[in-house]
Amino acid sequence: MPENNKVFNIAIIGGGFTGTMAAVHLIKNAKMPVSIALINKGGQLAKGTAYSTTDRVHLLNVPARNMSAYPDEPGHFVNWLRQNNRHLEMEDSGLPLEEDFVPRLIYGEYISAQLYEAISEHKQAHIQIFEAEAVDINMADEKAHISLDSGDTIRTEKVLFAMGNNVPANLHIRDESFYETANYQQNPYDLGKLAAIAKTQTVLIIGTGLTMVDVVNTLKNQGHEGTITGISRNGKLPHPHSDFVKYPDFIAPHIHKPPRELLAIIEEEKKKAGARGIPWQSVIDSMRPHHHEIWTQFSPESKKYFAENLGAAWGVVRHRMARAIMRRMEHWQKTGELEIKKGSLASLSNTAGKVEVVIKDGDAPEQVFWVDYVINCTGPMHNIAKIDKPFYKNMLAKGIISPGPLNIGLNSTPEFEVIDKEGGISEMFYVAGPLLIGVLWESIAVPELRRQARDVADKLLKTPPR
Ligand SMILES: Cc1cc2nc3c(=O)[nH]c(=O)nc-3n(C[C@H](O)[C@H](O)[C@H](O)COP(=O)(O)OP(=O)(O)OC[C@H]3O[C@@H](n4cnc5c(N)ncnc54)[C@H](O)[C@@H]3O)c2cc1C
């Protein structure tokens, strides 16, 4: 294997939002020369799964005012849109730009611009970009030797894991051989596959969250005529955003309480807000600064209870869609083009050229119906032990990484240091992004990740080389 002779100070594995913005902070804040290897597979540097879409109907699900890439410059994204006239490309929604929902493909270009601007303006850092998949790490001479699928090996003093989101897991069904058939799409972000679905086909979407909303919009935008059916255990679409109303911090005195008590306090506060004409969304959003503290102080039992009993409901109120998108979804429901069913999937099987779908809802008799095509929109898979990728398999086998709380993501300290299989806190391996969901819970949206990107870069620059 060709070994790159150079020893990098820092290698970042994953160049989506998190890895790219960590690189930007490293480049901007380096006081001494620092060499960075940014390794990203898939050729969509800076964009990752979320922002590499080429479909303009895919909008951000957070208003522009809260999508700055920098935690300390809240107006940065909106200013960038105006300075580059990118807001002129958007459909007129009647909302002020700050409150509007920008196409995600523009956001991807914004993040990309941050990287290339930082590279051209700050010369203390040298960055080399590798378009390849990291498949393994071996330790030698107190350095990490990262093997890439291109055959290269990169030597580095420190590594940041920023591998982000994975495709959804296949759900357990009676006969899992269905998943090998051409009527099933595991990766809902594969726009090429979505484009190949015949307009008249009936489609089942498993999961009714934001990914399903994206897929429905893509299909309808390409003229899809067949009925689309979404199923989930709660049978609910995501909620819409409301007008922005700043709500006082009511949760601070209660953050050390267990989940059930917190829930009662939140419900009470929602009622109080409603009585004053304030949307419940403002109550939920006011808790954002405390999410990590609430989660990290939960006992292991409380974490388990929350994840099993309240996690899905929390996701529904927390991750919301633009109102313009909601209006479209409601329209398609009214016309019967979109149907949402409540139930869990029991079976999928190919019968006489159709897919037979069996769903179960509590004690009610099983429902059976037929579709032509099935798409998995159950959300990213977070159990690293189940991810069928060489990098995770090798890192787990070597004990360099270990599963996070509740088998979600990687185990680490809240300060990004990876915890190995033996419980040792690493001075070489760091992690940021959605792989921290088990450790921090809310670790997926830009408002959390931009802070992580800044703080982990700061930590990497401060920790002396080995
Ligand atoms: C469809 C979608 C829409 C979203 N919309 C919003 C939104 O509107 N607002 C919001 O705040 N949040 C949104 N999110 C949340 C989103 O997770 C974050 O905003 C952010 O994009 C995550 O970035 P990331 O870099 O951590 O991960 P990712 O975007 O997943 O990027 C990880 C990168 O690492 C690469 N990689 C993985 N493994 C390897 C390896 N072994 N070697 C080399 N490269 C590797 C991948 O190819 C990818 O490029 C959305 C998420 C999704 C999935």
How would you characterize the overall build of this protein?
The chain is α/β, with parallel strands linked by helices and 466 residues long. It has three domains: 3-166 and 382-462, FAD/NAD(P)-binding domain; 176-239 and 321-376, FAD/NAD(P)-binding domain, CATH 3.50.50; 252-318, no CATH class. It has 14 helices and 16 strands. The protein has helices at residues 17-29, 48-51, 76-83, 104-121, 191-195, 210-221, 259-275, 280-285, 291-297, 300-318, 323-335, 390-398, 437-440, 446-462, and strands spanning 3-13, 34-39, 125-130, 134-140, 143-148, 153-161, 184-185, 203-206, 228-232, 338-342, 344-351, 354-360, 367-371, 373-376, 417-419, 425-431. The longest helix is centred in the middle third of the chain and has 19 residues, at 300-318. The two termini are 25 Å apart.
